[in-house]
Amino acid sequence: MVATCLQVVGFVTSFVGWIGVIVTTSTNDWVVTCGYTIPTCRKLDELGSKGLWADCVMATGLYHCKPLVDILILPGYVQACRALMIAASVLGLPAILLLLTVLPCIRMGQEPGVAKYRRAQLAGVLLILLGCQLLWAKTESSLHSQHLVQFKQKYLEDFSYLQGD
User: Fold this and answer.
1) So what's the pLDDT on residue 160?
2) Of 134, 129, 105, 104, which is closest to residue 117 (Cα–Cα)?
3) Is the pLDDT of residue 4 over 60?
4) Are residues 86 and 65 in the same domain?
5) What is the CA radius of gyration of the chain?
6) Shared-domain flag, residues 121 and 144
7) Under a CB-based contact definition with an 8 Å cutoff, are residues 126 and 94 in contact?
């Protein structure tokens, strides 16, 4: 009974995680931009967000998004994150289907227990690959954002030094 409950809970959490990957891929809130602090920008309605598919600006209650359709103009990290997130979304479907066939309430003919165990292992490997791709894409985008912030700070310090401030 405990093994059955663990398998069902594992399937449900894997399914919810896969849906989360799909939702994360489609949202435009990967990077939040603001000229001030976030609470100040929310009060002034000058909050912007960037995602894999569009750059959005919220000003005076309107939410306007400009789609990123030119693939060749996009930076390499955005293209890589898009590819990794799409691959993770596509990779999740066979993993979820394999996990569904491994559940104890489903029997497929007169198959031996070893075949079910092999499918469970394959589904686990696919889900681990999915998680690694998701982690890699999010890390790549956040590292690139941090690199831009450091570059801008250094550039502004050098510029203010040249101006004599």
Assistant:
1) 45
2) 104
3) yes
4) no
5) 22
6) yes
7) yes
Asked if residue 81 and residue 150 are part of one domain, the reply reads yes
Query: Residue 105 pLDDT more than 50?
Result: yes
Q: Which residue has the higher pLDDT, 44 or 52?
A: 52
> Can you name the residues that pair with 56 across neighbouring β-strands?
49, 65
The pLDDT of 75-92, averaged and rounded, is: 86
DSSP letter for each residue of 11-51: HHHHHHHHHHHHHHHH-S-SEEE-SS-HHHHHHHTEEEEE-
Residues 89 and 130 in one domain: yes
- 135 and 116 both lie in a single domain: yes
Residues 134, 116 within the same domain:
yes
> What domain range includes position 114?
76-164
Query: Could you give the percent of the chain with pLDDT greater than 90?
Result: 5
Assigned domain for 22 exists: no
Task: Say yes or no: 152 and 87 in one domain.
Answer: yes
Is 80 exceeded by the pLDDT of residue 35?
A: no
Contacts of 99 (CB under 8 A, 6+ apart): 10, 11, 14, 15, 120, 123, 127
Average pLDDT value for residue range 21-34: 83
* Residue 16 to residue 34: CA distance in whole angstroms: 31
